[in-house]
Amino acid sequence: MAILIISLLVLGVLAAILGLLSYNKNGDSDVINVGNDCTTCNGDNALCEQECMMVAATRDIEYFDDEELDVYKGRPSDSYTDEEAEQFREVLYTMQQSEVKDWNRSLILRGVAVPDQLKDELVMLLD
User: Fold this and answer.
1) Burial, 49: exposed, middle or buried (Cβ in 10 Å; 0-12, 13-18, 19+)?
2) 23 pairs with which residues across the strands?
3) Are 72 and 114 within 8 A, CB to CB?
4) Which of 5, 44, 89, 92 would you call most buried, defined as having the most Cβ atoms within 10 angstroms of its Cβ?
5) pLDDT truncated to tens, each residue of the chain (127 aa)?
6) Spatial separation of the C-alpha atoms in residues 118 and 104, rounded to whole Å
7) CB 71 within 8 A of CB 78
8) What is the DSSP string of 52-65?
9) Is the model's pTM score more than 0.70?
């Protein structure tokens, strides 16, 4: 029984020492906290992108003068004709490059798949 108590005390002391070592001189944790906005997501961190998509799903869907694209809701990306893909292309090239990522999220949240004919162009324009 005494061995168990001593082991627990040693374990507690080691945990306390490790806890103290994990803080820097100013008392701040070494862990970097990322802001709650999605402007820091750059595509390298899938978790960041996923969290931003979840946050976006709770907000109202933002439209980019593209309400006419909602007729394609639920269609597979490989089923578009070239004329239909051109509708997406017109919207894509009338927006600023900084809006492309938000437009893509808007389409995803609305259930509208980007046509395969446009995916390479969309990826090139993403920030």
Assistant:
1) middle
2) 29
3) no
4) 92
5) 888 788 777 777 777 776 766 665 555 444 444 455 566 666 666 777 777 767 766 777 888 889 999 999 999 999 999 999 999 999 999 999 889 988 998 999 899 999 999 999 999 988 6
6) 12
7) no
8) HHHHHHHSPPP--S
9) no
